[in-house]
């Protein structure tokens, strides 16, 4: 696949496309994504993991930031607890295919005086209002934001400079922080990063994905759990807000290259799709039954996640 196509497939926005093209012409290019350590690495995280893998294939050096201090600032728990899951997360990301990446633990690079000076410098340029709004979709309990959650976006900007990356990948929920970075990093002598935004996919029930709501599939799930969760997933006969189609689009097709629907001959026989548009069209036209779509999704996902599960839990 052409590098530009690889870099932009399955994204909702690239800021800017011209800058990305220029980057692809450079001999060395670096991209990163930061993740707050999380008890479960799930299909939501995997959308950006897949994008990083696309970019790796398009010649980017990939950095994964395990943002332990950010999780702390965002009220996700004690530093001790967060550190513990950070190590687990790293193994998950490696198992998912990011084995050739550079891994950086936030607290290992964010407590130097240069870093702190950059944070202070930028905090003097960003209004409280902008900082707060940038956290709308990222911050926890934002009806009552803490000062730590205003420091958070400033530090995310400084990460980009400190890690010396040319591009930042994130869900579209990171957009406002990224726009602040593009606006303000040049004032501390750092070029504006190219920002690549992926969609936020829905949970299996069609509602906002959240580990606590149990509507996600994670790297830790067994085959039986994957089967069970997909079986009861929301899968309307439409293409709008259909979490099963989203899994096929954002996970199965990029990783397996095709979707195979297995059916007895009397129900139309097997069908194979290697482009999402074709699958979507066939499904919208009623040529594929939701039950068959689910069965195919479960077996593809099991095939994708089994080796990851083994890698993560094999010792
Ligand atoms: N803001 C990201 C999230 O919502 C985490 C993150 C933290 C990303 C620091 C980048 C960064 O530099 O999970």
TrEMBL record:
One of its GO terms (biological process) is tyrosyl-tRNA aminoacylation. It is found in: Cytoplasm. A motif ('HIGH' region) lies at residues 37-45. CDD domains: TyrRS_core. Its EC number is 6.1.1.1. Keywords: Aminoacyl-tRNA synthetase, ATP-binding, Cytoplasm, Ligase, Nucleotide-binding, Protein biosynthesis. Catalyzes the attachment of tyrosine to tRNA(Tyr) in a two-step reaction: tyrosine is first activated by ATP to form Tyr-AMP and then transferred to the acceptor end of tRNA(Tyr). It comes from the Archaea. L-tyrosine binds at residues 32, 152, 156, 159, 174. It holds the Pfam family tRNA-synt_1b. This is Tyrosine--tRNA ligase. Belongs to the class-I aminoacyl-tRNA synthetase family. TyrS type 3 subfamily. It catalyses: tRNA(Tyr) + L-tyrosine + ATP = L-tyrosyl-tRNA(Tyr) + AMP + diphosphate + H(+). ATP binds at residue 211. Homodimer. GO terms for cellular component: cytoplasm. Gene3D superfamilies: HUPs, Tyrosyl-Transfer RNA Synthetase. It comes from Methanoculleus receptaculi. A motif ('KMSKS' region) lies at residues 208-212.
């Amino acid at each position: 696949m052409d590098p530009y196509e690889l870099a932009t497939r399955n994204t909702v926005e690239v800021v800017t496309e011209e800058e990305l093209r220029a980057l692809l012409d450079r001999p060395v290019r670096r991209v990163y994504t930061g993740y707050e350590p999380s008890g479960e690495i799930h299909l939501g995280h995997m959308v950006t993991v897949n994008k990083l893998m696309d970019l790796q294939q398009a010649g980017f050096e990939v950095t994964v930031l395990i943002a332990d201090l950010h999780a702390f600032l965002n009220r996700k728990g004690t530093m001790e607890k967060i550190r513990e899951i950070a190590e687990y997360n790293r193994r998950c990301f490696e198992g998912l295919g990011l084995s050739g990446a550079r891994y950086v633990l936030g607290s290992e690079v964010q407590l130097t005086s240069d870093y702190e000076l950059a944070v202070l410098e930028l905090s003097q340029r960003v209004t409280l209002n902008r900082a707060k709004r940038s956290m709308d979709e990222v911050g926890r309990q934002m009806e009552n934001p803490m000062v730590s959650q205003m420091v958070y976006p400033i530090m995310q900007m400084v990460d980009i400079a400190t890690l010396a990356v040319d591009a930042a990948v994130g869900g579209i929920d990171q957009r406002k922080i990224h726009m602040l970075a593009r606006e303000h990093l040049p004032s501390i002598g750092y070029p504006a990063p190219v920002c690549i935004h992926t969609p936020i996919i829905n949970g299996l029930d069609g509602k906002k994905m959240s580990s606590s709501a149990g509507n996600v599939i994670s790297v830790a799930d067994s085959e039986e759990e994957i089967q069970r969760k997909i079986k009861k997933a929301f899968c309307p006969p439409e293409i709008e807000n259909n979490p099963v189609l989203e899994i096929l689009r954002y996970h199965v097709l990029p990783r397996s290259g095709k979707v195979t629907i297995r059916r007895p001959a009397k129900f139309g026989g097997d069908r194979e799709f290697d482009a999402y548009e074709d699958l979507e069209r066939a499904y919208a036209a009623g040529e594929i039954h939701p039950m068959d779509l689910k069965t195919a999704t479960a077996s593809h996902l099991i095939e994708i996640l089994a080796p990851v599960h083994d890698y993560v839990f094999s010792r």
